[in-house]
Write a structure and sequence with these properties.
This protein is mainly alpha-helical.
């Protein structure tokens, strides 16, 4: 084979409008890890020596993606897992832990890790997946007079911080997946609470839709006060996933809400020129036209699911048009060797590739889009990691940036696991 954004931080190298989320061989690496990764979950920042970039190796044997995924998961646990104290069993936001970091990571990167663990569980690895899913509950909180929802932070016992509608929806997606993998009805019960949280958040400003978070609604001049694709798109995806497992008596209302949110996003935030989706509608009614891979990706996935549920061709047609538009918009040449997806926010791109996998049975070009991503993932493995094995944010390998963040490592884990499943790999541990 040829080797070809919950801290809500925005990459310093990317200029964005207000309201965007502030948001060789592995065996060799593992052999030297004990020396490189001392006290991985500790606070000894002063002892930390930044690793050097890995020198690219020549193409080797055919890649086994589930092995690389498991190695990445083990590395994350060695570096980021908290092994004592009130937040034991959770993960640090950064490696090494930085001054000012919370006692545990934000909800968003923790969710990304659980998503990767789900893939490993589905592949056949024992990764204590159920325990990880159950730990979502330490982020849950119910302020007085409101419905419950997952906060962006935790002290290890209860949630705190802002409650984001996209974060809650993504947790809901994970809960439904956990039910499908583990057959624990409790996860469906917990997911229903998120339906109620979304229902309480819907309003008629601009004709419908959800704000990004419950604390910043309708505040003109505040960049984070917006109705974004991510909140509405991931709420739609969660509702459609929940629709597949919820009691019959709930299905009509759940589907109706999903269709409303989908229609609002399509009407307000879809670029008619290429089918990609803009980031958000600000509180003053203006459109932030920044485009991110995950926003278009989630709406492709939604179109596929709505087509499968309703049989209405318009949903599939929109998803196909967005798939073609996304590939043409986001993919660029890389060093004359391959095509590359964006050099930033790889977690976002992972969600676009999930969408291409969703639509491939109905749109064969998506298979080539996925192959391009696989080449990019292979390239990143060889060219975009530090000497301790951690992935850069920039998978082109040009700049070793943001490798300290848990979310960047989650993106690699989820991508490797997702591609292993896509290729039909399985594993039985010895």
């Amino acid at each position: 084979m040829n080797i070809i954004v919950h801290n809500r931080e925005t990459p310093e190298e990317v200029t964005v409008s207000p309201g965007i989320k502030n948001r060789k061989k592995i065996k060799t690496i593992l052999a030297i890890l004990p020396a490189l990764l001392f006290s991985c979950a500790g606070d000894d920042v002063e002892k930390y020596i930044p690793p050097t970039p890995i020198t690219p190796s020549e193409p080797g044997e055919e890649v086994v993606y589930h092995k690389r995924a498991k190695e990445q998961f083990d590395l994350i646990n060695q570096c980021y897992r908290i092994n004592s104290g009130a937040t034991e069993g959770l993960y640090n936001e950064n490696y090494p832990k930085k001054d000012g970091d919370n006692s545990a990571s934000f909800l968003w990167p923790y969710d990304g890790l659980v998503s990767g663990a789900a893939a490993l569980h589905a592949l056949g690895y024992d990764v204590n997946y159920a325990d990880m899913v159950d730990r979502f509950e330490v982020y849950y909180r119910t302020p007085n007079g409101t419905v419950g929802g997952y906060g962006s932070q935790t002290n290890g016992t209860t949630g705190s911080g802002t409650r984001f509608y996209d974060d809650n929806s993504i947790v809901g997606i994970e809960l439904v997946e956990a039910f499908n993998l583990l057959n624990n009805q409790d996860y469906v019960t917990k997911a229903k609470r998120i339906v109620e949280f979304l229902q309480a958040g819907e309003d008629d400003t601009f004709g419908g839709g959800l704000w990004w978070n419950e604390d910043q609604k309708g505040q003109q001049g505040v960049g984070d006060s917006n109705k974004p694709t991510c909140a509405n798109g991931y709420a739609t995806l969660f509702l459609l996933e929940y629709h597949s497992v919820c009691p019959q008596e709930e299905k009509a209302d759940v589907l109706a809400l999903a269709k409303r949110l989908y229609a609002w996003t399509l009407t307000n935030l879809r670029d008619p020129e290429d089918g990609c989706y803009w980031n958000d509608k600000q509180a003053d009614g203006s459109i932030n036209k920044t485009k991110w891979t995950y926003n278009t990706g989630v709406m492709i996935s939604n179109g596929v699911r709505l087509y499968k549920i309703t049989g209405e061709q318009t949903y599939l047609d929109s998803a196909i048009a967005s798939s073609e538009g996304a590939y043409n918009y986001f993919v660029r040449p890389l060093n004359g060797l391959a095509l590359a997806y964006p050099d930033h926010d790889p977690w976002f791109t992972t969600k676009l590739i999930r969408a291409f996998i969703d639509i491939e049975p109905y749109y064969k070009n998506a298979g080539n889009y996925i192959k391009t991503f696989i080449n990019f993932l292979d390239y990143a493995y060889e060219n975009a990691r530090l000497s301790n094995g951690l992935f850069y944010e920039d998978w082109t390998g040009a700049t070793p940036k943001r490798a300290e963040q848990l979310l960047m490592q989650d993106a690699a884990l989820e991508s490797l696991g997702m591609i292993a499943l896509y290729k039909g790999e399985t594993v039985t541990e010895e």
